[in-house]
C-alpha cells in the first residue's frame, strides 16, 4: 500500500513540474525560444517531416503544454 501512495505522489509531482521543465527547455507561452533545446527539437522535427512540425508530434505536444504555463 505504501508503494502505491509513493508512486501516486511521484506521478503527481512529475505532472505538476512538467510545464516548468518544458518552459526551461524553451517551450514557452510566447512560443519556442530561440537557441533553446526546444528550437533544436523543432528544427529536427521539421527536417524529418519535410519542412513542418506534424500535429500530434512530441514537439507539438510539448509546445501545447508550454503555452499553457504562465
TrEMBL record:
Record keyword Metal-binding present: no
GO CC annotation terms, alphabetical: mitochondrial membrane
Intracellular or extracellular location(s): Membrane
InterPro entries: IFI6/IFI27-like, IFI6/IFI27-like_sf
Keyword presence, Membrane: yes
Family: Belongs to the IFI6/IFI27 family.
Name by which UniProt lists this protein: Interferon alpha-inducible protein 27-like protein 2
Organism: Seriola lalandi dorsalis
